[in-house]
Amino acid sequence: MTNEQQTVAVTVIDGADEHTIDVERGRRLRDALLDRGFEVYGTLSRHANCGGRGLCATCTVDIEPEIAPDHWHDAAAVQFGYPRLSCQITVEEPLTVRLLDKHVWGQVLPRHL
């Protein structure tokens, strides 16, 4: 397998800034973002979170294209228009990630009601 096949291009949108990073295929998105200095948590949840186990729902991001959820929280998020848990997304194909402005814990408003 060549290096190109082992990594996946992920475009990260952080406010007005856009970066493209190479992520190892099969890696959890949360870990790849944190390792490269991107913040997926809010001010408090940055210090108190579940460590990527899908329990605290504070590492949310918007992603395109949609990836089929395999976690109960992500299935509900897709159904009700909320962001996805970055800790439950395995990077297999190129995608775009929008980091969200979070307040207090991990709260964000739904995209559509």
TrEMBL record:
<protein>
    <submittedName>
        <fullName>2Fe-2S iron-sulfur cluster binding domain-containing protein</fullName>
    </submittedName>
</protein>
<dbReference type="InterPro" id="IPR036010">
    <property type="entry name" value="2Fe-2S_ferredoxin-like_sf"/>
</dbReference>
<feature type="domain" description="2Fe-2S ferredoxin-type">
    <location>
        <begin position="6"/>
        <end position="103"/>
    </location>
</feature>
<dbReference type="InterPro" id="IPR001041">
    <property type="entry name" value="2Fe-2S_ferredoxin-type"/>
</dbReference>
<dbReference type="GO" id="GO:0051536">
    <property type="term" value="F:iron-sulfur cluster binding"/>
</dbReference>
<dbReference type="Pfam" id="PF00111">
    <property type="entry name" value="Fer2"/>
</dbReference>
<dbReference type="InterPro" id="IPR012675">
    <property type="entry name" value="Beta-grasp_dom_sf"/>
</dbReference>
